[in-house]
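A favour, since you know our structure tokens better than I do. Could you add the entry underneath, on a fresh line?
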Amino acid sequence: MNWKHRWSCRLAMVAAVLAWACSSPTTPSTPAPPDPPQPPEEQALEASLSGEVTGTRTLHADTTYLLQGVVTVTDGGELRIPAGTVVKGDVSVQPTALIVRAGGKLFSEGTADAPVVFTSSSPAGERRPGDWGGVVINGKSLCNFPADECVGEGSSGTYGGVDRDDDSGVVTYTRIEFAGFEVSFGNELNALTLNGVGAGTQISHVQTNVGLDDGIEFFGGTVDLKYALVTNASDDSFDYSTGWQGRGQFWIAQQDPNDADNGFEVDGNEDDFNATPFTAPVIYNVTLVGNGPGGESGEKSDVGLHLRRGTAGSIYNAVVLGFGDQGLDVDNPETLTNGLELRNSILADNKAPFSTDDDGIDEEAFFNTPEWGNRVLDDAMLADPYNRDAPDFTPIAGSPLLTGAATPPDDGFFTPTEFIGAVEPGGKKWWMGWTSFARN
């Protein structure tokens, strides 16, 4: 038999077998191959985070962490959270919060493409302000209360000292959502609380969203903050007091029209309006957005800038718009004598530009101090600042924010600018991509 005939026979036999197999009703089907292993980012690993961090604990971006109860980073401890990590505050355990004690460090190091997210354990659509307690960092820098009285709200521990360069870690490209907790009236945890945090700490590109109390609050300290967004805070968006002397630039607040207080609430010392060190930061390029057009679109978002209790400090290049009471309210004579300045700023589209309360303070005269370069206008001409789902805080062509700005000092922290507000006209929308405007 030649080789062609042998192969013809074999092919015929194979064809016959295959035909029989296909026609046989009892032949079992071949099992499908197993699914390939999933990559780590799709494995949805989960772990709990509770108790104390005493040494160095490093989390992993492929794992979702359930924060349970008050988690404390102790003096000498370090908690390291890499880009893309999600930490969920357990709504079933109250209070739940992350507290960094003085001497401890937090490294929450997200990126624009992969932020670190602290959020609620409730599913999207069911999340609420106050689902968990928030993040508190305590440091060893300034406080203008006596040393034994520098104690954080919400039982968050002691803070303060004389180390202006104290280092509590790094927080960058980090979002904190649905946080805040009221321990008792006037004694609350905010979304992000900075108690006596020193200038050695690096904080930039931070958002707080849907917080039960303030968005970001400073009690003393010398830490700087650059690129900050506060949205939907139930109380004040930015609150600083107790001798904070850091620097700030590129801050945005968008208020909830029906559940908010002030854009800025600023104090010296609530018991002694001449207590030193004064609250005296230097802040450039701020955009504060209240209720809506004319300040008439909601029931709250009271005051854009509420400055009181002997605060000092300097605010430059701020635009304040859409607040339901007034753009500016200054209280207490000490606030005018301790060195407070508000320069190169615009009040626009508020229900009223200035407070008219009978407290002996003439806000209009203060605002119009010669050489300060402030203006009251009808329209700041921002692209879409009142849009609560996808806002755009950029000045449009012809905006008054394009002229009359102060130039920040060249000190290694401030970015040179020639515009008023927190967003460069025609420039990068720095808040986009790593933030969220979800309200539940």
